[in-house]
UniProtKB/TrEMBL annotation:
Its EC number is 3.1.3.2. Residues 1-29 form the signal peptide. It is an enzyme of class 3 (hydrolase). GO terms for molecular function: acid phosphatase activity. Coiled coil: none annotated. The keyword Hydrolase applies. It comes from Rhizobium halophytocola. The keyword Signal applies. Keywords: Hydrolase, Signal. This is Acid phosphatase.
Amino acid sequence: MSLAPLKMKRLALSAGVALAFAVSAPAFADESVPQNDLLNATLWMQKSVEYKGNVLGTFALARIRLDEALADKSWTALPEMQDAAKVSDMPTAIILDCDETILDNNLYEAHLVKDGTDFSPKEWTAYVNSEQTTAMPGAVEFTQYAASKGVKVFYITNRTKEEESATATNMEKLGFPMGGNVDTLLTKGEKEEWGSPKGSRDQLVAKDYRVLLMLGDNFSDFTDDYKGTLEERQAVFEKAQSHWGKDWLVLPNPEYGSFESAPFLSDYKLSADERRKKKIDALDGWTPKN
């Protein structure tokens, strides 16, 4: 038998396989997949049960600490603003950050990853105004528990005053207790002196309430001394050692925050590659022996 027909059959089969592969191959087979520093963090925060477990655990601890604080009339999370010997008769309050503390913005973060874009204040405001933000696991239940104990719940956020109305409506729909006749949603720029640092807003609450707990995902939710070098931030952290896990409770957020900008000292004039290089240089790594 001549080998020509067999060769022709093999060629036809090979061509058919190649065509089938070309049709079924994923669209990115011939293209590089864009790299994005947010990918793993966003995937973890949006899809992992480990993240949900971390958040639920933090709010479970918050209930325990709240009960302890209510039983101790000298307990205050802001001793530099309040005299523990004079706060026993004050009404009680807790202070919570919003984004990535009680409000989950992973739809927006995933948009940045999937569309290959960067944070845009204008686009962020459009997202806020869409009122699609969801609640962190356990956040609504914790705030409702605090309110049931007669504790006023304050939300100190760097969402802006222009975003306050949509934020309040979104939070009310989710079930967060709001202030009634007291302004409990304190936004950036709501007063002229209210910039990104939150200390002046903390002080406003501390003037009339015994602050039992502070909850946040960023160092800046607890102190205005959050900026500086990595070493300076570590020193501030150690100075506040008695607060962590007691009256200052931290939610995990590997997506963004002052931790990420500290290695390049918040110098956003640097290119993305220059910022990334400084973050890599800040890491302490193991060196294998030859």
